[in-house]
């Protein structure tokens, strides 16, 4: 059965493209008009970001002083612009100190980060680690691709492999395309009728 889907999968990958880095600057000017906000996140909010997003979520944990984070950020924004929809979103969580909030917000504006952006109100790094990923050693950036149910599909400390990450996103979106919500709902209804 998987072999029958292979041509459709290949067609999907060809349509979606293979490298978000090649798309820099090709998304129009509409993104620059969306207001950029930075929301303070308490431990419960941080846990909610991780636990059950309801859609495919790329969560990146970063800091303004982290060079690798600054290097990776445009790739994440390109992924949002390429795949962002009701089924996928990028969310950022800054671990900068709250007194650097304005500098973080300026960084987000410069990067055109028109996505949900949070800054941790938790000062203890181990509390953030506990809420997000117990396997996280604290290296930044932390990149988590989460299923709609909160399962970790991709995890990377340090610079993410954008091609692998993009492949994971496309694979999950393709699975969602093959299993539309309407068929899931009808399966639930038929299960209830027994």
Task: Provide a descriptive summary of the structure in words.
This protein is 45% helix and 16% strand. It has helices at residues 2-16, 43-51, 67-83, 101-110, 125-132, 162-178, 181-192; strands at 39-41, 56-62, 88-94, 117-120, 142-146, 152-157. The chain has a six-stranded mixed β-sheet, sandwiched between helices. Helix 2 (43-51) runs parallel beside helix 5. It is globular, with a radius of gyration of 18 Å. The two termini are 28 Å apart. Mean pLDDT is 80; it is low at 13-28 and 186-194.
Which structural traits does this protein have?
single chain, 194 residues, alpha/beta, six-stranded mixed β-sheet, 6 strands
Question: What's a quick, concise take on this entry?
Answer:
The chain is an alpha/beta fold and 194 residues long.
Give the ordered list of helices and strands.
HEHEHEHEHEEHH
The overall strand count is 6
User: What global shape is seen?
Assistant: globular
Gyration radius, to the nearest Å?
Answer: 18 Å
Mean pLDDT: 80
Order of strands in the sheet with most strands: 1-4-3-2-5-6
Characterize the largest beta sheet: strand count, sense, and whether it forms a barrel.
Answer: 6 strands, mixed
User: What fraction of the residues are assigned to beta strands by DSSP?
Assistant: 15-25%
**How far is the first residue's CA from the last residue's CA?**
28 Å
Number of alpha- plus pi-helical segments: 7
Q: Into which percent range does the helicity of residues fall?
A: 40-55%
Low-pLDDT segments, ≥5 res: 13-28, 186-194
**Global structural class:** alpha/beta
């Amino acid at each position: 059965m998987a072999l029958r889907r292979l041509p459709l999968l290949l067609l999907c990958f060809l349509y979606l493209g293979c490298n978000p880095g090649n798309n820099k600057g090709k998304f129009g000017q509409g993104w620059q008009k969306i207001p950029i906000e930075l929301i303070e996140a308490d431990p419960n909010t941080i846990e909610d970001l991780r636990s059950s997003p309801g859609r495919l979520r790329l969560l990146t944990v970063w800091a303004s002083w982290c060079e690798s984070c600054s290097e990776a950020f445009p790739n994440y924004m390109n992924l949002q612009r390429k795949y962002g929809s009701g089924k996928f979103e990028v969310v950022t969580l800054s671990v900068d100190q709250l007194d650097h909030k304005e500098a973080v917000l300026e960084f987000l504006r410069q990067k055109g980060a028109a996505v949900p952006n949070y800054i941790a109100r938790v000062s203890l790094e181990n509390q953030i680690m506990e809420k997000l990923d117990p396997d996280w050693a604290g290296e930044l950036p932390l990149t988590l691709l989460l299923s709609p149910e909160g399962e970790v599909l991709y995890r990377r400390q340090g610079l993410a492999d954008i091609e692998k990450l993009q492949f994971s996103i496309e694979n999950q979106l393709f699975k969602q395309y093959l299993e539309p919500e309407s068929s899931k709902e009808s399966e639930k209804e038929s299960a209830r009728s027994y």
